[in-house]
User: Fold MFS transporter from Luteimonas gilva.
Amino acid sequence: MATPLAPSPPSRLPLGLYALTAGAFGIGTTEFVIMGLLLQVAADLHVSIAAAGLLISGYALGVFVGAPLLTALTSRMPRKAVLVALMVVFTIGNLACALAPNYTVLMIARVITSLAHGTFFGVGAVVATGLVAADRKASAISIMFTGLTVATLLGVPAGAWLGHEYGWRATFWAVTAVGIVATIVIATLVPADREDHAPIAFREELKVVRRPQVLLGLLMTVLGFAGVFVVFTYIQPILTRVTGFADSAVSPILFLLGVGLIIGNLLGGRLADKRLMASLLATLAGLAIVLVLMTFALHSKVATVLFFGLFGIAAFATVPPLQLWVLQKAEGAQNLASSLNIGAFNLGNALGAWLGGVVIERGPGLGSIPWIAALVTVSGIAVALWSARLERPRRVTVEAATCTAN
Assistant:
């Protein structure tokens, strides 16, 4: 495993960080854009809305499996080479989606695309934190993840519009083009690795990620973020069939949601740089509160628009603290731990999409999705409190050692 890249001066951020953001934009677009196309895909491929929603679960499970697998396979490669290779896989996968003749092939193509996701964000997050000073690591992660939020702000509404006007396949052709551009930008702007030290053996990395605080961090990511995707996956049918918006209104509301995601992502990064555990608890609690209140807002168009903006802020404010927590607790195996945490985000996505489908088909229905999502997020808060309790004795020990030394 290569050593971190030389950090940039605190007065400016390196271009390589923005190149990583470009890759995150492409991957975020292909991950999220299907949410604005569920009805079109379901109608064209003759499947139910819940089955179309499983295209999100399939992608997320591919990320969960692919993250540790590809991280292990690429652990001895230079990080830059890994990032470029993963963008090539991503681009080929989206091309296969655009050409898919049926639901099965589309699902397989989505899974192929997803294999690049976890390791790209995992390795990319490590590269991003190595490009900046120690007190800006969470902010560097949030800037890279801004690619995801901009994907929701611009890529997903544009993809939804393309799908509405020209068919859902046109959206995947556009994402393929984005992948080509992002590959070129990363190859050009991300600095080459410094190879001062030998890579850490994968077996040693596994020992690190088995630490209790790392495992709890992964679990709080799964549960804390699953609540987001209980709602996020079914945003189109919620808006059109519960609140009563026309199909043409979905893209503007997704745009507003994307604005919220950007604000929340940057806010979460700043909070995590100051007080990490406090920011974890605060952002997860904020998300749960917004989800509960959203249940009562869905029958008012004005309130629904407002709460989807708040939902965007609350949802992505959790991302930088969740990612930085795992990185800090996995010192010595950050590539693997970071990739596993991206996989944990996506396992949460898969569980959320699945649970939302169950609520629609066998439970109380679309209108009940937000409060079900809130319950899932509360379980993530419980894990965060457990982790905080374990952290307290360690802090006491460190403070006592410091006092003794003085």
